[in-house]
């Protein structure tokens, strides 16, 4: 069954609620290896997104996601705004004009988002960033679809992979972003960006 634009809006609303609920937790994670502002920044960004959604509720999925991207770029500080903003912009470009999404469209959007983050952040798996949650999740999602799993099941498996990837950042040495300044002191802390990425994927599954 195709994904409607109403379901895309609902996912964004669930994401905003999750980010608001986990605001202090994300900030706590970021206080150990960053600027202690990831939770506040993401919550502020998605509060602004919620204000913009009514104006694009009748538009195609691409327009909705591009609106999210431009809003995040303009309202979220630190590295998260440009990275997540680029992710949503790229995903929106991949879904331009689409009012309904097939499983393959969802995969294309996720892959485009990851490519945008990778290009913007110049990071790769294993460097203690959001990519460590997103990369395995998208690989798992793709593999599940290839063997005929329904969308909900594929998303559940992807979310589990994202959670495992998020937890795998704890023993990693950060080599990218603000956390890399800490050197070996970054070891033993969960990456906040990987955590917010997991929250997005979990919200996707409903």
Task: Explain what you see.
- The chain is an all-alpha fold and 206 residues long.
- It has one domain (3-204): DhaL domain (Serine Threonine Protein Phosphatase 5, Tetratricopeptide repeat).
- Helix content is 67%, strand content 2%.
- The chain is built from 9 helices and 2 strands.
- It has helices spanning 5-21, 23-33, 38-52, 61-75, 80-94, 103-121, 131-146, 151-168, 192-204; strands at 3-4, 100-101.
- It has a two-stranded antiparallel sheet.
- Helix 4 (61-75) packs antiparallel against helix 5 (80-94), helix 6 (103-121) packs antiparallel against helix 7 and helix 7 runs parallel beside helix 9 (192-204).
- The longest helix is centred in the middle third of the chain and has 19 residues, at 103-121.
- The radius of gyration is 16 Å and the shape is globular.
- The two termini are 15 Å apart.
- The mean pLDDT is 95.
Helix content: 55-70%
N- to C-terminal distance = 15 Å
Q: How many DSSP H or I helices? A: 9
User: Order of strands side by side in the largest beta sheet?
Assistant: 1-2
Number of domains: 1
- Under CATH at level 1, the class stands as Mainly Alpha
CATH topology: Serine Threonine Protein Phosphatase 5, Tetratricopeptide repeat
Number of extended strands? 2
Give the full name of the CATH homologous superfamily.
Answer: DhaL domain
Q: What is the radius of gyration computed over CA atoms, rounded to a whole number of angstroms?
A: 16 Å
Percent in strands: under 5%
- CATH-defined architecture: Alpha Horseshoe
Strand and helix order: EHHHHHEHHHH
Judged by helices, strands and strand pairing, the structural class is mainly alpha
Largest sheet: 2 strands, antiparallel
> Average pLDDT, to the nearest integer?
95
Question: Shape, please?
Answer: globular
Low-confidence stretches: none
């Amino acid at each position: 069954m195709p994904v409607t634009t109403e379901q895309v809006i609902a996912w964004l609303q669930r994401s905003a609620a999750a980010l608001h609920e986990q605001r202090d937790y994300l900030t706590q994670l970021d206080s150990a290896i960053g600027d202690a502002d990831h939770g506040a920044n993401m919550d502020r960004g998605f509060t602004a997104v919620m204000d913009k959604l009514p104006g694009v509720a009748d538009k195609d999925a691409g327009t909705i996601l591009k609106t999210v991207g431009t809003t995040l770029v303009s309202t979220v500080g630190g590295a998260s705004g440009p990275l997540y903003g680029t992710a949503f912009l790229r995903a929106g470009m991949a879904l331009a004009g689409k009012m309904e999404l097939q499983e393959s469209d969802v995969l294309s959007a996720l892959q485009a988002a990851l490519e945008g983050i990778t290009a913007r952040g110049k990071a790769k798996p294993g460097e203690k960033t959001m990519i460590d949650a997103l990369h395995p999740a998208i690989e798992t999602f793709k593999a599940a679809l290839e063997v005929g799993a329904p969308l909900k099941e594929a998303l559940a498996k992807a979310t589990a992979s994202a959670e495992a990837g998020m937890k795998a950042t704890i023993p990693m040495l950060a080599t990218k972003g603000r956390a890399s300044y800490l050197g070996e002191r970054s070891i033993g802390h969960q990456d906040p960006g990987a955590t917010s990425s997991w929250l997005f994927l979990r919200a996707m599954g409903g």
